[in-house]
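Progress report, Aim 2. The chain analyzed during this reporting quarter is listed below.
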Amino acid sequence: MASLFSRLSAMSLLLGLMACGAPGVNTTDASKSKGVKVVSTFLPITLFTEAVAGDCADVTALIPANLGPHDFQATPSDLKDLSGANVLVKNGLGMEEFLDDLISSADNKDLMVIDSSSGVATIESAEDDHHGHDHGHSHGEVNPHIWLDPILAVQQVENIRDGLVKADPSCADGYKKNAELYTAKLKKLNTKFMAKLEPYKGKTFVAFHDFAPYFASRYSLKAEYLVDLPEMNPRPADLQRVAAQVKASGLKALLSEPQEGKRSFNALAKDLGVNIVEFNPLETGSVESAKVPGTYFEVMSSNVNNLVKAIGD
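Predicted structure tokens for the chain:
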């Protein structure tokens, strides 16, 4: 964190020079933009925020869609975005652990921060059960992947709605209507998933990293995982534990993630004679997809179809 703070301090100095009218910098762009300026953190939060904002606010993703929160490194442009923003929307629950230092360096006293996880019932992280503290870091005390449960996503959207209404009362009706339409779709998606996954209640699936406890809990499934965080390398004990689980549960496939491609996971699947299917936890995506709120429904529907293939009959 010390090196991150040093980089942010240097960026703050650069931002100050830019604000003072450094050559080649157009300081009037902000006045030309319409609506409230909102910065979202990473892909699912950007999708939810875009859905609620509609035409009422300009939404900028802090983290490029092709990067996950674990890989993010702030730039002077990020500081400039935060310095000129009215609102910052985050997932919360420790997912964006870099934010406090970044907000401090941006020095925007009028910035409203919306924590989309406010009031959401959480699940404790399970690294103590499987990994202890040997890796030196984890998700924290609670698992942050609440957006993968469509009903918890409803709460996130409603939190974003309430925050934007407070920040911009002039467009309150727009925010409320947009949120109402999007949450109705989320509830319909949940009903669809309930019916599709009903025959598999109590079944176990295995993913590469620990992103699925909320999803599993919603649909009465059991989620196992190889490592706590996606950047971790599994230990021999992790591989042995998962191998035993796969054999005991009769899984047909392991769930991999599009941004991973871990050789150890692929090798494990080969050794066990099972396939690899994709479950996209929506931590990353394309820049184009981040602007389309419907991306959430497309990806999650594909995830459930692949999950059924993994669990088998």
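The CA atoms of residues 209 and 230 lie 5 Å apart. Strands lie at 36-40, 57-61, 87-90, 112-115, 204-209, 222-227, 253-256, 275-278. These observations will guide the mutagenesis work planned for the next reporting period.
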